[in-house]
User: Which sequence fits this backbone?
């Protein structure tokens, strides 16, 4: 099986899975097409396609059709995801092949597939899906409650350890920005680092979104970005400093010039000149910057660094959530409120708690 990119006549992007017969795998095809129709991002559809490709490959190796699985086999699939190979068993002290987060994402894709087909009249999927309501009407997915079906692995979300997001030091952020030889690239990395903006949000910026005299940038969700950029999350105004305003002005006057394009970030030296930059362009720029800077990083780590620094410097989590354009403050707190022992000690010392308690001895 292989994952195949699909471009619609209207220019929209989606994905499908091609089977051994060189035809789209019909249950996956219908589900992924539906995800595209409800405007899930192409990256999300691609990730679900890869996950379902792994699931159908697992079933094919065991000679089981997707509509003939048992709960026991679904439990076995969870255990299989953690194994390096079919003939290898991970010891309790060993490191699983896939992280807990990855396994949970793949299980969500499988759950979504069966739930979609259950809602569309597939009798097997409908029989498999357990949509029970209890208490105040809380929904329990079809794999809820079968975790102990088989000792080899459990179906349903695995418990995830809360981890701090990977961040950069301020010296590393300075090195990323300072290693850029072109104003466009310097402005892009500076914008990501100094606003916490996502790459998709930056690639979708139009000139009218950059309001220099008010020192703010408007992040707007648009579905018609020709470069496929997606402003994941919410939308709103982000404050910027005068340094970023000057860098934007230098970029506009010295490099952008008289180009006739509505997008802020465009191709200037390669590809189709004047066309909006794409995710692939940013990925290549990140790879070149890694070689120059001498350390590994991702563009999204600049967002994590911005939010973590704001949180550690005492910015209320509600404001950090608004700056990140999260729809829920719970999302922000779940990711960024992971104080270390030193963080807790510093807060206790600042409040005088340790000194007061020390006087008791």
Assistant:
């Amino acid at each position: 099986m292989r994952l195949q990119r699909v471009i619609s006549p209207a220019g929209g992007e989606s994905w499908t899975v091609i089977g051994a017969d060189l035809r789209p795998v019909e249950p996956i095809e219908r589900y992924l097409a539906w995800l595209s129709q409800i405007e899930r991002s192409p990256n999300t559809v691609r990730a679900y396609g890869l996950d379902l490709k792994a699931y159908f490959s697992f079933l094919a190796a065991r000679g089981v059709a997707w509509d003939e699985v048992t709960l026991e086999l679904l439990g076995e699939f969870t255990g299989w995801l953690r194994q390096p190979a079919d003939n290898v068993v991970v010891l309790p002290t060993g490191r699983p092949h896939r992280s807990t987060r990855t396994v949970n994402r793949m299980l969500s894709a499988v759950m979504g597939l069966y739930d979609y087909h259950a809602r569309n009249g597939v009798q097997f999927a409908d029989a498999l899906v357990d949509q029970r309501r209890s208490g105040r009407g809380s929904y329990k997915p079809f794999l809820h409650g079968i975790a102990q079906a088989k000792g080899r692995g459990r179906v349903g979300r695995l418990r995830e350890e809360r981890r701090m997001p990977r961040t950069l030091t301020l010296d590393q952020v300075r090195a990323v920005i300072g290693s850029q030889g072109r104003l466009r690239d310097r402005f892009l990395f500076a914008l990501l680092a100094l606003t916490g903006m996502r790459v998709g949000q930056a690639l979708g910026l139009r000139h009218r979104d950059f309001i220099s005299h008010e020192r703010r940038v408007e992040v707007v969700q648009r579905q018609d970005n020709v470069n496929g950029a997606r402003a994941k999350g919410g939308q709103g105004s982000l404050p910027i400093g005068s340094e970023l305003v000057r860098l934007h002005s230098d970029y506009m006057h010295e490099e952008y010039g008289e180009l006739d394009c509505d997008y802020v970030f465009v191709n200037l030296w390669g590809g189709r000149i004047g066309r909006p930059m794409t995710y692939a362009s940013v990925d290549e720029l990140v790879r070149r910057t890694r070689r120059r800077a001498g350390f590994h990083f991702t563009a999204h780590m600049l967002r994590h660094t911005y939010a973590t620094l704001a949180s550690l410097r005492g910015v209320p989590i509600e404001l950090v959530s608004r700056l990140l354009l999260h729809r829920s403050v719970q999302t922000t707190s779940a990711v960024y409120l992971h104080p270390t022992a030193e963080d807790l000690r510093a807060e206790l010392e600042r409040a005088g708690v340790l000194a007061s308690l020390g006087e008791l001895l």
Remarks:
- The chain has two domains: 2-88+97-133, 170-359.
- Strands lie at 2-7, 13-18, 132-134, 138-140, 210-211, 216-219, 236-239.
- The chain has a mean pLDDT of 82.
